[in-house]
Amino acid sequence: MQVKERAVELAKAMENEDGVMGAVKAFFKHLPRKKPEPEIERAVLLRKNAKSVEPSSPLPLPPKKPTFSCPVCIGLLVEEMSTKCGHIFCKSCIKTTIAAQGKCPTYWRKITFKDSIRIYLRATN
Protein backbone atom coordinates (compact mmCIF):
# COMPACT_ATOMS: atom_id res chain seq x y z
CA MET A 1 0.00 0.00 0.00
CA GLN A 2 2.89 2.39 0.76
CA VAL A 3 4.24 1.96 -2.79
CA LYS A 4 0.88 2.89 -4.30
CA GLU A 5 0.62 6.00 -2.10
CA ARG A 6 4.12 7.09 -3.09
CA ALA A 7 3.30 6.51 -6.77
CA VAL A 8 0.19 8.70 -6.45
CA GLU A 9 2.31 11.40 -4.71
CA LEU A 10 4.84 11.32 -7.54
CA ALA A 11 2.09 11.46 -10.16
CA LYS A 12 0.58 14.55 -8.50
CA ALA A 13 4.00 16.22 -8.29
CA MET A 14 4.59 15.62 -12.02
CA GLU A 15 1.06 16.57 -13.07
CA ASN A 16 1.85 20.15 -14.09
CA GLU A 17 5.12 19.40 -15.87
CA ASP A 18 5.32 20.12 -19.57
CA GLY A 19 6.35 17.26 -21.85
CA VAL A 20 8.25 14.06 -21.26
CA MET A 21 11.53 15.70 -20.19
CA GLY A 22 9.70 17.86 -17.67
CA ALA A 23 7.97 14.80 -16.20
CA VAL A 24 11.25 12.87 -16.00
CA LYS A 25 13.00 15.79 -14.29
CA ALA A 26 10.11 16.14 -11.84
CA PHE A 27 10.22 12.39 -11.15
CA PHE A 28 13.89 12.51 -10.18
CA LYS A 29 13.37 15.76 -8.28
CA HIS A 30 10.66 14.25 -6.08
CA LEU A 31 12.09 10.74 -5.83
CA PRO A 32 13.90 10.27 -2.52
CA ARG A 33 17.49 9.29 -3.20
CA LYS A 34 19.27 6.65 -1.25
CA LYS A 35 22.99 6.92 -0.72
CA PRO A 36 24.53 4.82 -3.51
CA GLU A 37 26.53 1.83 -2.56
CA PRO A 38 30.30 2.37 -3.04
CA GLU A 39 30.62 -0.31 -5.72
CA ILE A 40 27.74 1.10 -7.78
CA GLU A 41 29.10 4.65 -7.38
CA ARG A 42 32.52 3.49 -8.63
CA ALA A 43 30.93 1.82 -11.67
CA VAL A 44 29.04 5.01 -12.50
CA LEU A 45 32.23 7.08 -12.27
CA LEU A 46 34.11 4.63 -14.48
CA ARG A 47 31.33 4.78 -17.05
CA LYS A 48 31.38 8.59 -17.04
CA ASN A 49 35.15 8.73 -17.51
CA ALA A 50 35.31 6.06 -20.22
CA LYS A 51 35.19 7.14 -23.82
CA SER A 52 31.87 6.42 -25.46
CA VAL A 53 31.97 3.73 -28.11
CA GLU A 54 28.35 4.27 -29.06
CA PRO A 55 27.72 6.18 -32.27
CA SER A 56 26.94 9.81 -31.63
CA SER A 57 23.42 11.04 -32.17
CA PRO A 58 22.69 12.13 -35.74
CA LEU A 59 23.27 15.78 -36.50
CA PRO A 60 20.11 17.84 -36.86
CA LEU A 61 19.05 18.65 -40.39
CA PRO A 62 19.82 22.18 -41.57
CA PRO A 63 16.80 24.49 -41.44
CA LYS A 64 14.69 24.55 -44.58
CA LYS A 65 14.79 27.64 -46.74
CA PRO A 66 11.76 29.79 -45.99
CA THR A 67 9.11 29.78 -48.67
CA PHE A 68 6.58 32.52 -49.10
CA SER A 69 3.15 32.03 -50.57
CA CYS A 70 0.74 34.50 -52.06
CA PRO A 71 -2.48 34.89 -50.03
CA VAL A 72 -4.47 35.39 -53.25
CA CYS A 73 -3.41 32.37 -55.35
CA ILE A 74 -2.00 30.33 -52.41
CA GLY A 75 1.00 29.44 -54.59
CA LEU A 76 4.66 30.38 -54.32
CA LEU A 77 5.27 34.06 -54.98
CA VAL A 78 6.04 35.01 -58.57
CA GLU A 79 7.49 38.50 -59.11
CA GLU A 80 6.86 39.55 -55.52
CA MET A 81 5.17 42.90 -54.94
CA SER A 82 4.55 44.68 -51.66
CA THR A 83 1.65 47.04 -51.03
CA LYS A 84 2.11 50.29 -49.09
CA CYS A 85 0.54 48.50 -46.11
CA GLY A 86 3.32 45.88 -46.30
CA HIS A 87 1.45 42.85 -47.62
CA ILE A 88 3.18 40.73 -50.25
CA PHE A 89 1.55 39.19 -53.33
CA CYS A 90 2.41 37.91 -56.80
CA LYS A 91 2.57 40.76 -59.28
CA SER A 92 -0.27 39.40 -61.39
CA CYS A 93 -2.43 38.64 -58.33
CA ILE A 94 -2.15 42.12 -56.82
CA LYS A 95 -2.61 43.76 -60.22
CA THR A 96 -5.80 41.77 -60.89
CA THR A 97 -7.15 42.30 -57.37
CA ILE A 98 -6.55 46.05 -57.39
CA ALA A 99 -8.16 46.32 -60.84
CA ALA A 100 -11.24 44.45 -59.58
CA GLN A 101 -11.59 45.85 -56.04
CA GLY A 102 -9.22 48.78 -55.62
CA LYS A 103 -8.29 47.45 -52.17
CA CYS A 104 -5.53 45.45 -50.54
CA PRO A 105 -6.81 41.85 -50.37
CA THR A 106 -5.47 41.46 -46.83
CA TYR A 107 -5.98 44.83 -45.17
CA TRP A 108 -8.95 46.06 -47.27
CA ARG A 109 -7.51 49.59 -47.48
CA LYS A 110 -7.88 51.52 -50.70
CA ILE A 111 -4.72 51.26 -52.83
CA THR A 112 -3.65 51.63 -56.43
CA PHE A 113 -1.14 49.55 -58.34
CA LYS A 114 1.21 52.56 -58.18
CA ASP A 115 1.20 52.14 -54.36
CA SER A 116 2.89 48.76 -54.69
CA ILE A 117 6.60 48.15 -55.23
CA ARG A 118 8.57 45.22 -56.61
CA ILE A 119 10.55 43.39 -53.95
CA TYR A 120 13.10 40.59 -54.22
CA LEU A 121 13.03 37.71 -51.75
CA ARG A 122 16.00 35.36 -52.07
CA ALA A 123 14.19 32.29 -50.79
CA THR A 124 11.49 32.33 -53.47
CA ASN A 125 13.73 32.10 -56.54
Can you put this structure into words, describing what you see?
The protein is mainly alpha-helical and 125 residues long. The protein folds into two domains: 2-49, no CATH class; 80-124, Herpes Virus-1 (2-Layer Sandwich). 38% of the residues lie in helices and 6% in strands. It is built from four helices and three strands. It has a three-stranded antiparallel sheet. A hairpin with a 5-residue loop joins strand 1 (80-82) and strand 2. Helix 1 packs across helix 2. The mean pLDDT is 76. This is Sterol 3-beta-glucosyltransferase UGT80A2.
List keywords for this structure.
125 residues; elongated; Sterol 3-beta-glucosyltransferase UGT80A2
Give a short synopsis of this structure.
The protein is mainly alpha-helical and 125 residues long. 38% of the residues lie in helices and 6% in strands. The mean pLDDT is 76.
Total E-strand runs: 3
Percentage of residues in strands: 5-15%
Q: Structural class, from secondary structure content?
A: mainly alpha
Unreliable stretches (pLDDT < 50, length at least 5) are none
Total domain modules: 2
In whole angstroms, the N-to-C terminal distance is 66 Å
Order the strands across the largest sheet as they lie in space.
2-1-3
Protein name: Sterol 3-beta-glucosyltransferase UGT80A2
